[in-house]
Amino acid sequence: MKKLALALFCLSLVGNMLVAQDGPIKYPELDSLRSLRPKAPDRAIRYAREILEGLDLEDRDLESRVLHILGEIYLELGLPSLSLTSLLDAKQKSHANINPWNDISIGNVYRHQKKWLEAKEKYFHALDIFSRRDQKISNNVSGKAVALNCLGSVEFGLKDYDNALVYYKEALNVRRGTARYKVFQRSLTGSSATFPGAALSVVYQHGRLAGLYAEWGLDEMSLEQLQASDSLLSHVPSSTSDGVSQAIVNKKNSYLGYDHSLRMRVYADQKNFDGAYSESRSALRLLHRLPLQLAKHYLGRSEIQIQQDSLYSALGSIDKALEICELNGLSVLEIDLLEKKIEILRINKLDRSALGTADILLEKKASLSSDRMDMLLESLNYKFQLDVNRRALEEARSRESIFFIFGGFAMVLLGMAVINHRNKKRARAQERLLHKQERQIAENELRSKEDELVKMSAYIVSKNDLLSSIDKDLEYHMSLIDSKADRKVLDPLRKRIQNKIDDSADWDQFQMQFSLAYPEFVESLSVHYTGLRTADIKLCCYLKMSMNTKEIARVTGLSVRAVENKRYRLRKKLNLDTEVSLDSFILAYNGAQVP
Question: Once rounded to an integer, what is the mean pLDDT over residues 190-208?
Answer without folding.
Answer: 88
